[in-house]
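Example 153.
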Amino acid sequence: MTLGLSKRVGIATDHGGFALKEELMAQLRAAGHEVVDFGAYGLNPGDDYPDFVIPLAQTVVAGQVERGIAICGSGVGAAVCANKIPGIRAGLVHDHFSARQGVEDDHMNVICMGGRTIGPAVAWDLVETFLAAEFSGAERHLRRLGKVALLEA
Ligand code: RB5
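Predicted structure in complex with D-ribose:
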């Protein structure tokens, strides 16, 4: 099922989400999305999520991919890291409602998930929902996001 138009999407993980990333990439491509893989490119238990999440986040901010998917074991480290990059609005999402509302209300541009906390079917539902959602542009959300953006000024 593809709910939205095809997008150019970046994806990154450490060892904690390597298997999930491989599965999601195949599903994204089968659904017609263009996928840019920021690694990890192999399962290395000693690797570090910032080495993959930072380049992904920078590419999202540069507009070279439309949305980002960042995975680690819990998704927490990926979210903490991605949100340090100005212009990133990353959320750790493990429920369908937040995958949609996080975009519609909060203009989330990177979804973070835990490879050790959710299964591939739930992760795929979250990714599909995240990619199909669009920011509402509602005044109250622009106002709130403006206050958040001031922190980066
Ligand atoms: C690595 O073992 C693990 O700490 C990492 O994948 C992630 O869960 C951090 O938040």
